[in-house]
Amino acid sequence: MKIYDSMPNEEYWNSLFNIPQIIEWLGVDSIIGPIVEIGCGYGTFTIPIAKIVKDQVLAFDIDPQMIEITSKKAHFIGLNNIKYFNRDIIEMGTGVEANSIGMVLFFNILHFDERRIMLEEASRILKESGKVAIIHWRKDIETPRGPMVQSRPDEETILNSIKGLNLIFQGNSKILEPYHWGIQLVKENISTE
Question: What pLDDT was estimated at residue 165?
C-alpha cells in the first residue's frame, strides 16, 4: 500500500529539516541494538545516524528508487552498517525478529488511518525499553509541504493510536523547527514477577 507525498528534489527536501537538531533529539548514541527506519527516503537521517551508531541501521522504503539513492550515498562514503529493504510494511511487516530492535523511526509517514499497523509492528520488534521516535509536519503552522493539515497526526492522535500496545509516553515531545514536531515512546516492561 503506497502512501506518500511525492518526494521533491533532495536538496530542497533536506532544507525542510534541522537535521543536527533532530539527530540530537533522537539520542541515537545511547541506543542499544539496531535501529529501524521506516521510510528512509533520500537517507536524510539514515546516513547521519549510521555514522554515529555502532549497530546496524535497517533502512526500509516502499520505493526502490529511494533505497537505491540511499545505498549509493552510503557506499560512496564507506558506510557498511546499513541494510536495505524494499518492502511494504503495512502489507508485509518488517520481517524483523521480535524484541530485537533498539529504536524505530517514523518520519512524516503516519498521516493515514493504517498508522496503528505500523505502530503495532514497531512494538513487536522493539526490545524492552526500546524507543519509537515519530516526527511529523506540524499542524499549528503553515508548512511548505506535507499532507492535508487534518490528516497530520498530533500528540493526541499518536497517544490514541498506541492504546492497548505496550508503548508508553514519558514526556519526550518537542517542536523541531522549522516545520516539524516529534514524540518518543518507550516499550514498557511487561514481565510478570
Answer: 95
Q: Does 3.40.50.150 match the CATH number of domain 10-187?
A: yes
Residue boundaries of the structural domains of the chain: 10-187
Grid coordinates of 154: 498530533
pTM of the predicted protein model? 0.94
User: What end-to-end distance do the CA atoms of the chain give, in Å?
Assistant: 41
CA distance 25 to 21: 6
What contacts 116, CB < 8 A, 6 or more positions away? 161
**Integer Cα distance of 127 and 141 in angstroms:** 35
Q: At residue 80, does pLDDT exceed 60?
A: yes
Contacts with 191 (C-beta within 8 Å, 6 or more apart), sequence order: 128
The CA-atom distances, in angstroms, between 13 and each of 9, 10, 87, 128, 168 are: 6, 5, 22, 34, 31
**Residues with Cβ within 8 Å of residue 144, at least 6 apart in sequence:** 16, 179
